[in-house]
Amino acid sequence: MGDRYFLEMTCPKCGLRDIDVYFAPTCDFVNWKCKCGHVVDLVKYTGITAEMASNKKEIQKMIKEAAYVIKNKKSH
User: Whole-angstrom Cα distance, residue 65 to residue 18?
Assistant: First the structure.
């Protein structure tokens, strides 16, 4: 799981504007293809990698906290 983004893109080849480009690096939605056929690598364009968009640390923290709560409920 990770962050998802909606971008506004202008094709550098033909100038077409797209205001609803979905970018989710952790789910491999990393390219945008203009109607003219030009493809933009959104990781290179934005500088946001899958690791940067990942919520892995936050998810691991929630799991540890939940395990702690469950463990403490059992001991009481």
Answer: 42
Tokens for 20? Answer: 């609803």
Contact predicate 58/1, CB 8 Å: no
Burial of 5 (0-12, 13-18, 19+ CB in 10 A): middle
Domain count for the chain, please give it.
1
Quote the distance between the C-alpha of residue 43 and its chain's center: 10
Per-residue pLDDT, averaged over 57-66, amounts to: 76
How much is the pTM?
0.67
Structural domain that includes position 55: 5-75
